[in-house]
Amino acid sequence: MQRRTFLAGLLTVPILAACDEAESQTIPEGPWPGPSTPRSYVTSPAPPLGERLVLTDEAWRQRLTRAQYDILRRERTEPSFSCELWQEHRDGRFYCGGCGAPLFSSAHKFESGTGWASFYRPIEPGRVTEHSDVSYGMVRTEVRCARCDGHLGHLFDDGPPPTGHRYCINGSILDFVPVA
Question: 40: which DSSP letter?
């Protein structure tokens, strides 16, 4: 498997800022009802394409860590370079940390220099959805898990060939499973 480093010229503050969300929502007070460390929801076989997982807000709080909940359900963004998966280079698959749906393959991962896990395509069509996001005075494309509708990150058009896309994904909401 070939790894690529992709820097569109010099990375600039606007590119980094476009991945990073402002902290505008308040964090719930009191002890967190969910786990303190992420749980894996990866199953074999993987959930079929088109299957949906719909839970109440309270069920999501019980299922996810606070950090996962903030990103997946409240559309927050982890700080750049804060999750080790941005530099994960083993062969494997990246799954949704909220529902276990397969999302991305290490074969489509590249080094963008942004500090977030970056992919030039999803693992297969229909595993992620794309939506217009006009928050924070920017026009972007938000990427969500097609199974649980969890916020994953954003899509930009500054990636490498063959697609020219950069799926800028929060690593702390991914569950990486190396190929055995």
Answer: P
C-alpha 109/C-alpha 91 separation (Å) is 10
User: What span, in angstroms and rounded, lies between the C-alpha atoms of 51 and 75?
Assistant: 22
| Residues noted as catalytic | 168
* Nearest-angstrom CA–CA distance, 108 and 120: 6
SS3 content of the chain, % helix, strand, coil (to 5): 20, 25, 55
Asked if 74 contacts 67 with a C-beta cutoff of 8 angstroms, the reply is no
Domain borders along the chain are 13-19+51-178
User: What is the spatial distance between Cα 138 and Cα 6, in angstroms, rounded to a whole number?
Assistant: 23
Q: For the segment 91-120, what is each residue's pLDDT rounded down to a tens digit?
A: 999 999 999 999 999 999 999 999 999 999
**Cis previous bond, 45, omega within 30:** yes
- Buried b / exposed e over 8-21, threshold 16 CB at 10 Å, is eeeeeeebeebbbb
For a pLDDT cut of 90, what percent of the chain falls above it? 76
pLDDT of residue 26: 53
| Reported confidence tier of residue 27, pLDDT bands at 50, 70, 90 | low
Indicate the class that CATH gives domain 13-19+51-178.
Answer: mainly beta
- Coil/strand/helix, residue 75: coil
Q: Say if pTM beats, i.e. exceeds, 0.85.
A: no
